[in-house]
Amino acid sequence: MTPKITPTPLASLRVSRHFIPAHNLIPNTSIQNRPLLHYQGAFPPATLTASAIESHLTSVGVVVPQWRFTMYSTTHFHSTTHEVLCISRGRAKLCFGGEDNPGKVEKEVEQGDVLILPAGVGHRLLEDVTGGFEMVGSYPKGYSWDMCYGKKGEEAKTQRISMLPWFDRDPIYGDEGPALEY
Length: 182
Description:
three-stranded antiparallel beta sheet, mainly beta, globular, six-stranded antiparallel beta sheet
């Protein structure tokens, strides 16, 4: 049986919010004007497993866990859905916004952290600091992810981002939570 996990109380949660300007053909947060959210230590790491994260996300019912993996080392973004990444193992340095973007954000994330990426935010792995870095990738119910790389020919895809609905419940906390502030 998968152990039940309880997220860090909202009053104690540290949240970073980042608005990242468009760069070349990567829209980042410019289309919907919603920030990249980083919930630092959203889950206590002591007994955290990918299965426990998946069970929690399923019980909240906002997103559907779809994979366990590291992050690709090539900058990419999704035009068809927002993305929730829960760090289930390890520590890594990530880049958001595109490597050449003066407004990029580089962050080190670790087990227990959660990232909420609005559709269009470029992201890639810079360094797997501990080895074995793993995330649970999840998407809003009813939405499937695609892969875009900021190349010519993807412009029509990126225009559809403006029509995507934002979360009406927080993917981690449900009826309350930082995702609902936008």
